[in-house]
Amino acid sequence: MESVLVTGGAGYIGSHTCVALLEAGYEVAVLDSLANSSAAAVDAVAEIAGRRPRLDVVDCRDESAMEKVITEVRPDGVLHFAGLKSVPDSVADPLRYYRHNLESAAVLLSVMERCGVGKIVFSSSATVYGDPDVLPVPETASTRPGNPYGSTKLMVEQMIADVVSADSRWSAALLRYFNPVGAHPSGLIGEDPEGVPGNLMPYLLQVAVGRRPRLPLYGTDYPTPDGTARRDYIHVMDLADGHLAALEHLDSAPGQVQAYNLGTGQGTSVLEVVAAMRDASGHPLPYEELGRRPGDVPELWADPGKAHRELGWSATRTLAEMCRDAWDWQSSHPQGYRSRGLP
Length: 343
Ligand code: NAD
Ligand code: WQD
Prior knowledge:
This protein has 343 residues and is of the alpha/beta class. The protein has helices spanning 12-23, 39-49, 63-73, 87-92, 94-115, 148-166, 200-208, 236-250, 270-281, 305-311, 319-332; strands spanning 3-7, 27-32, 54-57, 77-80, 119-125, 171-177, 179-181, 215-218, 230-231, 233-235, 257-262, 268-269, 287-290, 299-300. It has one domain: 3-Layer(aba) Sandwich (Rossmann fold), CATH 3.40.50. Strand 5, helix 6 (148-166) and strand 6 (171-177) form a beta-alpha-beta unit. The relative contact order is 0.15. The structure holds nicotinamide-adenine-dinucleotide (NAD) and UDP-4-deoxy-4-formamido-beta-L-arabinopyranose. Residues 85, 87, 125, 127, 179, 198-200, 203, 215-219, 229, 231, 270, 293, 296 line the site of UDP-4-deoxy-4-formamido-beta-L-arabinopyranose (WQD).
């Protein structure tokens, strides 16, 4: 595979994956509506990789614009990151999430089919497991997402599986990410959420950089060693490498659709993340103990064995590296991409 189209390539995980793709020699075309991102991320990707990907500002739901881009780019495969990803927003406005995420995928797949492009890597999520019966959670575990966002991920997985089973020229990898954190070690790209961050790491970073006074710590009475919830935090560059491994695998897997957990296999508590970020940033990071956040599960971490066996991929970066790289990004860009002097 030589040429890839990256939907959502200006976003957090997509931009990091673009760097890994460019550095591995792929021709990369980014397609992004910029609804939740900035073109400055693509500029920074070009700066790191020394090569500029094509950028089309297009919404995946716009079928004629999609067809134009895919006809021009003629990619060998597609990485589909584009979508809405806030769990609480999806609970508040489920139809917006269903319409947006399902329509984006359906239009993309239709255009790919018409243009004869049959390889896709989809950004799914560990949220499809809900509260798991067994830890570490394998891909064979039952899926029961506890929110509309997670349901859209499962539905798109099913949509892709049905397309592959109807036409054996297709092949697909459904990558279930656990908790992506960290940044490229250059400090030039990173996570840049709009408004109040909903996730732990970006919130902590904004406390460290002085944008917020303290972390709201949700839940100290979980049945875990320190009472706080445990998750599988994975460095975003490990995740990026997982996409390259999946793309390579698709070349030798016609007619197959497989789900893969991308996680480290290790559970880390909220307080352990706070301590690691204190070490990385040198800031005290005060927090306020609050009750549990509705919808949170006590513990969730991956069994990443299938990705290791079938894709030859494993996460290698430590929690300390995740915090160091995230801090390098945030401390050099306290206002995110706006710190590059752009609107
Ligand atoms: P992000 O919001 O930073 O990136 C998504 C990108 O898609 C943004 O650049 C946005 O502008 C673009 N986009 C949204 N809707 C679009 C549309 N209809 N057409 C074109 N572009 C569109 O999010 P991220 O954290 O990089 O996540 C990437 C993918 O991974 C998402 O599908 C998300 O659901 C999934 N995921 C993320 C996490 C996480 O914790 N970050 C975990 C599991 C799965
Ligand atoms: C981690 C822990 C919080 C913020 C979410 C999505 C999931 C996936 C990854 C997309 C929890 C606690 C958090 C804060 C806190 N995304 N926390 N104070 O909930 O595991 O997963 O992101 O697919 O679908 O649900 O990640 O980072 O929000 O929370 O105490 O300000 O940190 O309660 O225990 P989560 P998170």
